[in-house]
Amino acid sequence: MSRYVSDIVDGIYLQINNVPEGSARRAALRVVCSLAEEYPEEVVSSLLRHSLPCDSNAAELWKGLCRNLEINAKVMWQLLRELKQRPRLQEGSSSSGDGTSLTPLAATRALSEMLTIYVCIGAMRGFYPQLFLALLTQVHYLVNLPGYSEVTRRECGQQKRLTTANHVSCAVEALKALLIRDRKEIVLPWMEKVGGWDLLSSAEGYLEGVLLLARAMVTHASHHLSGLLANTIPNLRTEDEEKTLTAMAFFAGLLRSKSVTKLLPKRTILGRLEEWRIDPRPTVRWLSLHGLGNMALHRQKVKQLQALLPAILVGLNETHERFVREAITTLGSILRHHRDRVNISSICVRIVKPLRPFLDDVRQQEEGGSYVRGGGVGYCCQGKASRELPTPTYETVVGRNCHFLNPPLWIKSHSFSIGRLATVIKPQSESVVSITQPLLCAETAFSESSLFVYCSQPRDKVRSSAIGLFGNLLRGLNLKSKSIMQEQVLSSLVPLLLHLHDQDWEVVESCEWTLARCNDFMGWKLLEEIFTMAHYDNQQALCKVCKHLVQRYSGRVHEFLSQSQHYLKSGQAPVRRVASMFTGFIVHHMDASCMSVGDMSSLLSALSDSLRDPEPSVCSVASVSIQQVKQVSENLAVTSVLISLRRLFCCMTNQNREKPLYEDSPFKRKRWLELQDSKIA
């Protein structure tokens, strides 16, 4: 009989349109149900051949199989078996030797039709965890197929032909239907609000979409957590990469729930996350960092938090922006969740030291695979000579035995600086030297006037997040930690002030917010000046801030000037301009004895280099600041006895210096009140 089941189902499918509504059609559907009860595998296999695309005839037959709970369960089990297979898009073939086929795609469409019938809810709940994870993995299979991208998904959104984009959309819709049938409709708008569905439908953002979906399930479908966890754990170690990564991401997301630690020993969870942390695959290490962050959100003692902290801080040393942003986000979440529960002063002190380099705009490289913290300053060539410089592409570098750590899009799409080459390549052999050496020689051959500093835009997001986290560290500290944090604030003050003129508005807002926190923490009265500098071109505000710093922290003048000297080579013209202004105002207000002759000579040389800056406003500001430095250098010729006498009689050494007056900034609006003052003057 089993030999004829397929022929019978095919015949009913082809003739169902000719059967009139009423008892005759119901009888035909009962025949299919009877066959499915005895031969579910044959019936499902036959119907799947007609379900891609799933027309009205196939849809009616699939819905007819839902009328009986026992038959529905058997059919759903067969569909689940197909959904666990890897799909393959190849017209005219239903299977291949590697085990992949079109049937998983047909099974997805069949399941979508069955989920429209309310009576299938009983069978669906019996297989809910397996169906949920199988559909989630199907989406991963599809978005990783060759030729699929976010562009093709948008282009094919209104087309009827079967494409990878259509199949991805169908799988996501089946996942939504599963949530709706389980009465978890609240997950849908939440995922839509945070962009979870779009992330899930893209190859680049798929794992982030899985993490968001797991978070939504923890919040709104906690009764399924035990079943989902039980079905996720076996997939954490498989030879199927997509299935394993999907399980890892979902497992890391489920760790946000405290109940997971009751189902699994905490030692087992941390041991698994530690294995992921040392995995050579960057994606696995990133998921480990996310999982550790979720574990740190649980209510626990300070000692337990401190035990988790080193593994999270390691993420700040990674070579990819994604890791660093995840680490900073995780640390911020820990502060928000635990600040009002336990004393986290010691944790804040441990975080601030590795965080500070991300606030700077200077290149800091590490041995064995460099990383550009806080800005990525390198050198590029500008002008006629630069067009003759050979540009290494992503393909040519890979062809020379080099290893990229998740190369960003700018490597694949356009040329990049030789100064940044070492920041994205981790050498596997000495062949990297053979690539970069001739290019570096060619680069240094250009005149100094043809060089400018290159700033990597993706680092702006890291800097913005790091600056915001720095401001959060200044709250709720004990007396011992406050003294340590005061030193860190003073060491980070110059980068924060200068980045108020950053070209990225998110960085400016973060600096403004963090400096306001610093103002309260340090007991300054500079809040108005900080807000003014963030929004307007106001020399008086910067002058007042510099005067306050010199008067209150005269012993740190050398440090302030040294930091501002680095920013004279920033990749952003507004930052280079304000660095010269900051230098001029600090020099104007300081005592001549604060700096040695050698220090002043070095500062004068750095400002002289700015006179060759391609931005005219930077050159103009540098020339004014140079005059201030020269005036102080003249005062250094005065003997130490005369300096002591001037101090004894309270004579300031800058009384005879003319206050620097700079041209208006071409980058920011001139403040209205200052404009009125200049007209009156």
Estimate the helix proportion, in percent.
Answer: 55-70%
Globally, the shape reads elongated
Q: Could you tell me the number of beta strands?
A: 4
- Low-confidence parts: 91-100, 150-161, 362-458, 651-655
Strand content: under 5%
Individual helix count: 36
Structural class from helices and strands? Answer: mainly alpha
Mean pLDDT: 77
Please tell me how large the radius of gyration is.
33 Å
- Biggest sheet layout: 2 strands, antiparallel
Record the strand order, biggest sheet.
1-4
Give the end-to-end Cα distance, rounded to a whole number of Å: 105 Å
Task: Describe, in plain words, how this protein is organized in 3D.
The protein is an all-alpha fold and 681 residues long. It is built from 36 helices and four strands. The strands form two sheets. A two-stranded antiparallel ribbon has the order 1-4. Strands 2-3 form a two-stranded antiparallel ribbon. Helix 8 runs antiparallel to helix 10, helix 15 packs parallel to helix 18 and helix 18 runs antiparallel to helix 19. The protein starts with a helix and ends with a helix.
Features:
two-stranded antiparallel ribbon, mainly alpha, 681 residues, 36 helices, 2% strand, 4 strands, 63% helix
